[in-house]
Design a protein that fits this description.
Aldehyde Dehydrogenase, Chain A, domain 1
Length: 458
Amino acid sequence: MPIATMNPTSGKTEILIEPHSAAEVDERIAQAAAAVEALKATTFAQRAEWMRAAAAILDDQAAGLGELITIEMGKPIAQSVAEVEKSAKAMRFYAEHSEEFLADVALEDPSTVNASAAWTRYEPLGVVLAVMPWNYPLWQVIRFAAPALMAGNAGLLKHASNVPQAALFLDTLFERAGFPEGSFRTLLIGGREVGAVIADPRVKAVTLTGSEPAGRSVAQIAGDHVKKAVLELGGSDPFIVLPSADVKAAAATAVRARINNNGQSCIAGKRFIVHADVYDEFAAEFATQMSGLVIGNPLLPETQVGPLATESGRQDLIDLVEDAREKGASILTGGTVPDLPGWFYAPTVIADLPEDARLIQEEAFGPVASLYLAKDHEDALRIANQTTFGLSSAVWTSDPEEEAFFVAGLDAGAVFVNGMTVSYQELPFGGVKRSGFGRELAAVGQREFCNLKTVWKA
């Protein structure tokens, strides 16, 4: 069955692309395995030169790539172009720092292990499969590919089926920049075929960013074949506002946190937990700003909220909101489907959620925010930690003791104080609980797909 680019703004098919056959998939895995051997003969300096060249390609094509991303998944055009630029920046970051991140580390006093010298070294694992989502079709891939290739690994990409043109662009990017043939290959396959690729003995590890069910499946197959896996799964991130905070600034940032990428971001603030002393003020400001957002064609510069990426994704969001409404929740704004072609949903704020509402535990992947009134600090922390997810979090306070309380108490892979969660190449990224395991980005993310080898010398 052909793989389609369905324009979420119009609901129409833009292009149909034939998937790879089993023979083509086998050949692409073979090319990646051969590239690993070629990469072993290269230096950090050589790979850095190629990585900078790949970054330059992104810079040169930023406008066109931004438009392609918007057409395929619907985010506002300025955000799409920013994604391209962020990806190029990360590539340069790893070109600059990989040799430092992966340098040998000597044991300071080797006599403690009866040696004249002892050290550890990082070596690439080989071919690594990346199973990536559509919400950041370039950035999600580059934040894996840049550190992996700079470490000397080869990459295979199984991208989301609704962004095939982005996947095909990435298929040739690194070779165009000078990397050996096969260093990075896209596999145009369905989800059911991923297991066979993970099981292939030429593939040494897998990383996935996606849903919890997909993560469970990938982790099980990787475990069956004793292969390394890194998983970044869902999030229902708390955004906590305390009385000492600048409430207006918190509300303005909360809007950006919730509607960035049309609300389709794992690390977006989704549950807004507000202390009783400032709840009414925050709720009124937040709902007013959410209701005033410009919805429309994401290719137009004035648009702030575009469509959901898929029709099924919008339906999932509708179902969550209607479940809450039927169980007695208050809809402060939104909760409707705009009269537009494509897969739009109005920015929505829901309050007074009953304990049995699905939104209490499930991730809302779209411009829907849930508001929670917290009686005190302990109650805010209880609400924040009550979900099965633990990706990131935010807390707004000007009190150092409050800050320390939440930094220590939040069950999350990250805590952002007086800001919204953003991924930076300089900082590790990943979650706890059912948000996954392992880390991406920074030095630790690059080392995930390296063998840490210990060397002892008499």
